[in-house]
TrEMBL record:
Ranges where the Transposase putative helix-turn-helix domain occurs: 12-41
InterPro entries membership: Transposase_put_HTH
Source species: Lactobacillus gallinarum
UniProt name for this protein: Transposase putative helix-turn-helix domain-containing protein
Length: 42
């Protein structure tokens, strides 16, 4: 596997998305669950 420093160029992709209100609720639910699990291990 090549390293980033050995490549002649670097590039990235920037995406933007516009979730609906239903998708926002799902994203918030997943984020809250992730935060709960993280805090329980800390």
């Amino acid at each position: 596997m090549k390293r980033m420093s050995s490549l002649a160029y670097h590039f990235g992709v920037k995406l933007r998305f516009y979730p609906s209100s239903k998708q926002k609720k799902i994203i918030k639910l997943n984020y809250d669950a992730q935060r709960f699990v993280y805090n329980s291990y800390v």
